Amino acid sequence: MTRVQLPPKPSRWPSFRSPLRSTAVTARLGRLVGISFTICFVTGLLSHYQYHPWSWLPEPASPVWLYRVTQGVHVATGTASIPLLLVKLWSVYPNLFRWPPIKSIKHALERASVAVLVSSALVQLFTGFFNALDWYPWAWSFVPVHRFLAYVVIGSIMLHIAVKLPDIKYGLQTKVVDGDGDGGGGARKDSAGQRRLAATG
């Protein structure tokens, strides 16, 4: 079997060596992001139904406070998802600079799906946050775009989980103190700072 010769890495190609990053930390952060997005998605669907009930399934008259609960949980989890997602992206962004950037058609499609996930999730969260502030620095109608984009985000998350399932299983089964902690670079042991970052594990 002929081994493919990879092009040499450019001399000024970024290199990352943070001991805070590891598959174990990323998997735990991803689990929190997945849970918060799922709660936000489900409560968003419930709120939309309560605001626009289906003709064949009328909204129950009680409890009258149900909409306040679902919408309150939706806004709270959406707001909490912003820092969670940003920390998750911080933990994996060195992967953007792995060499070579594209290894195969499959790898290119995987990176494209991640780009869709990240961009749609960021737009969804920040426009939702601006809506909570009653600030609309865009010309399009917020509600339909927010609703349809939610399906794109959830679909992208499900695809991402399916592709990364082996890494997710490894990360969740590995103790943080035993993680790879490569930060996009070489293997190393996790530090005390990494244990504090992933205290949820």
Descriptive tags:
single chain, 201 residues, mainly alpha, Fumarate Reductase Cytochrome B subunit, 5 helices, 61% helix, disordered C terminus
Q: Biggest β-sheet: count, sense, barrel?
A: none
Strand proportion: under 5%
Q: CA-to-CA gap between the ends? A: 42 Å
SS content category:
mainly alpha
CATH topology: Fumarate Reductase Cytochrome B subunit
Overall geometry comes to elongated
H-E string: HHHHH
Number of helices: 5
Uncertain stretches of 5 or more adjacent residues = 183-192, 194-201
Helix content: 55-70%
**What is the alpha-carbon Rg in Å?**
20 Å
Number of strands: 0
Q: Give the CATH architecture.
A: Up-down Bundle
> Mean of residue pLDDT?
82
| Top CATH class | Mainly Alpha
Number of domains: 1
Description of the structure:
The chain has 201 residues and is mostly helical. The protein has a single domain (23-197), classed as Fumarate Reductase Cytochrome B subunit. The chain is 61% helix and 0% strand. It has helices at residues 23-51, 66-92, 105-132, 142-173, 192-197. Helix 1 (23-51) runs antiparallel to helix 4 and helix 2 packs across helix 3 (105-132). The radius of gyration is 20 Å and the shape is elongated. The termini are far apart.
